[in-house]
Design a protein that fits this description.
The complex is a heterodimer of chains A (about 250) and B (about 290). By secondary structure, chain A is an alpha/beta fold. Chain A has helices at about 40-45, 80-85, 100-110, 115-130, 135, 150-160, 180-190, 205-210, 230-235, 240-245; strands at about 5-15, 15-25, 30-35, 60-65, 70, 85-90, 165-170, 195-200, 215-220, 220-230. Chain A has a domain at about 5-95 and about 165-245: Rossmann fold. By secondary structure, chain B is mainly alpha-helical. Chain B has helices spanning about 1-45, 50-55, 70-100, 105-120, 120-135, 145-165, 170-180, 185-210, 215-220, 240-250, 260-294, and strands at about 60, 65. Classes of the chains: A alpha/beta (about 250), B mainly alpha (about 290).
Chain lengths: ~250, ~290
């Protein structure tokens, strides 16, 4: 069984169709990159899995979006608990205006965990997983805003990991970061793969090539090509893919 | 040829710029001058009567001597009462408007109405307050009726500033919270409100400044010409600074003799408003730092 799946998904913002008949199957513990020019629907597609598109009014979805074989858009699905299964990392680092500790603890607290010892453990292990512990262990009570952009983004990943999701959705997580911070995040993505299924939207094709196992190329709301990353970049089957990855348009 | 032409153009641009700056500067200084003139006029005329006794003693001899203590206390009661009413309702209404109602006809209508509400002359609020609170609900001329009327006046300001404060919280914080499985209410309470709090407080204090100076709404609902004692319950009448000022300048026992007291009262009123504004600024800075740390 696939970890993530979409079957014949159409998505509309009002009357305009943003996704057209998207079929993708993603295996567990892999990294999948979604690439394509701006407005191609890749971010919209990513946000289907934790139903973040619900926050935008006047949208419609057709087809099935499955996590562990269960349709996330089925009736009776609790959106809040669905989102617990999927950690999300955003384009710009967006830590809360709270202490470093409370940022990571937030997801635990809103999900009803009150055992301070457990929270302590989870916060520590989550920050360690993103290789930030040594940098922040002495200033957990300081504001998260005091961290650099790259540190903030790793903190946001730790925040997502704390609620123990099985899927991590990343929406251009390095687009606001410098090359060194970017490299650290990419390294992290590679390490996290053993425990999580990761889907990453990126504008950066080298990044897609570096971190992902499979790559999906979107264009104007359609899935043009979905293949093993190495195949897609060295031997694309569709001409449009080739034009895009060689930089002829986009 | 070419260069002289360019020179001419740049010189003419320069002249235009200088002329524009000159006009702006004149207008700017003009306004500042007026402000300083008003303030110094009141300070010069009023400072002589300001003393500890002036703010802690009852009026004496037909309000031509003595202090304005009951008016200060009355104004404080009215401000507190009106905020007790307007602040919770206004903040909740703004949360509902900004976080729950989706954009549409209903929201536009409510917003139009709140905007119109803030444009209604304050004397109309006074009449409405008299009709509803004083007569219909039978509160009589009382602190309760006056506070509610002033509260209604402050409501649009509170709603407006709170809405702006909530809007200023970037959606990415909301999304991050939702993404972690938080409900809407958890997101509002734990992320949005703490971030918006400094600006909400600013709005509150600015509306205090506004309310404390209003005369018309309290005219028919609470204000007393003269009271020999302080109010003891919310159903008592009270004296208030702006109304006191009005009374001793227009219908006092001896208008000429009580003139200094009028200026003193005006000065106290201005000081209260000024302190409110300074406090608003200080609190915003304080809470802004606190928000980052909490």
């Amino acid at each position: 069984m696939y970890k993530l799946e979409s079957k014949h998904v159409d998505f509309f913002y009002g009357a305009s169709q943003a996704l057209k008949d998207i079929n993708i199957s993603i295996e567990e513990n892999t990294v999948t990159a979604l690439i394509g020019p701006s407005g191609c629907g890749k971010s919209t597609y990513l946000r289907l899995f934790n139903r973040m598109n619900d926050l935008i009014s006047n949208t419609t979805i057709k087809g099935e979006v499955l996590i562990d074989g269960l349709d996330v858009y089925a009736k009776g699905v609790n959106v809040d608990s669905l989102r617990k299964k999927t950690g999300m990392v955003f384009q710009k680092p967006n830590p809360f205006p709270k202490t470093i500790f409370e940022n990571v603890a937030y997801g635990l607290r809103v999900n009803g965990i009150t055992d301070e010892k457990l929270i302590q453990e989870r916060v520590e292990s989550s920050i360690k997983k993103v290789v930030l512990w040594d940098e922040v262990k002495d200033k957990l009570k300081k504001s998260a805003f005091e961290l650099s952009g790259g540190q903030q983004q790793r903190l946001c990943i730790a925040r997502a990991l704390a609620i123990q999701p099985s899927v991590i959705l990343m929406d251009e997580p390095t687009s606001a970061l410098d090359p060194i911070s970017t490299a650290k995040i990419e390294e992290l993505v590679y390490e996290l793969k053993s425990k999580y299924t990761i889907v990453i939207v990126t504008h950066n094709m080298q990044q897609a090539a570096r971190v992902s196992d499979k790559t999906a190329f979107f264009y104007l709301g359609e899935l043009i090509e979905f293949n093993i990353t190495r195949e897609l970049f060295t031997n694309p089957m569709v001409e449009r893919t080739q034009n895009y990855i060689t930089g002829r348009f986009g | 040829m070419e260069t002289t032409n360019e020179n001419r153009i740049s010189k003419s641009k320069d002249r235009h710029q200088k002329a524009a700056f000159f006009v702006f500067a004149v207008l700017g200084y003009f306004i500042v001058t007026i402000l300083i003139a008003i303030l110094s006029f009141i300070v010069i005329k009023g400072a002589s009567v300001i003393s500890w006794d002036f703010i802690t003693k009852m009026p004496e001899e037909g309000m031509t001597k003595g202090g304005i203590y009951p008016a200060i206390i009355g104004t404080l009661y009215l401000v507190a009462g009106s905020m007790l009413f307007a602040f919770p309702i206004g903040v909740l209404a703004a949360i509902y408007m900004n976080e729950y109602v989706s954009d549409g006809v209903a929201k536009k209508f409510i917003r139009l109405m709140t905007n119109n509400l803030s444009g209604i002359p304050s004397i109309v609020f006074g009449l409405f307050g008299m009709a509803l609170f004083v007569n219909k609900l039978g509160f009589g001329d009382s602190i309760l009726a006056g506070s509610l009327t002033l509260g209604l006046l402050a409501l649009p300001v509170v709603i407006r500033t709170t809405e702006e404060a909530l809007k200023a919280v970037n959606d990415t914080f909301r999304h991050a919270s939702y993404g972690l499985g938080a409900t809407k209410w958890q997101t509002i309470r734990r992320v949005v409100l703490p971030m918006a709090f400094p600006n909400i407080i600013t709005g509150l204090i600015l509306s205090i400044g506004r309310v404390s100076g209003e005369t018309a709404p309290i005219l028919f609902t609470v204000a007393a010409y003269f009271l020999p004692k302080l109010p003891t319950s919310i159903f008592d009448q009270a004296m208030a600074l702006p109304y006191h000022l009005y009374v001793i300048s227009t219908s006092g026992t001896n208008i000429e003799e009580s003139r200094p007291i009028a200026y003193g009262t005006a000065l106290i009123l201005i000081i209260i408003v000024l302190v409110c504004n300074l406090l608003a600024n200080a609190l915003r800075k304080y809470f802004n730092n606190k928000v980052k740390m909490s």
